[in-house]
Amino acid sequence: MLTATKRTIRLRPEQERALLALAERRGLPPYRTLLQAIDAGLTAIAGGAARDADTREIAEEVGTIAVRLIELERVLDRNLFVACAAYAYARNAALGARQGDEAIAAEARAAFDRQRGLATEGRP
Fold this sequence. Notes:
Elements: H1 13-26, H2 30-95, H3 101-119
């Protein structure tokens, strides 16, 4: 069987007024309202520590995701550049042009910049 422990507390006048107003609204005796307030306060304090840990874990996961997104963006940029280079070399061969590697690389870079610009258009 659980036994209750008797405690004496002192309320500031504004706390007493708030307690009495809350008790009246709920139609409960002030003592019962005070017990509910203590229970709710202890629960909130105990839950706060768990919430802080959850927030910390979420922040770490968001950081991990951000790093992976940066890596993914680099891989996608490399793939886009390779595709643009392949296009530039294929176009050069199809046209029968005898441009050097530097000229074809410049065309590939220009195509990459155009495509990257289109992909990021409207993004901050």
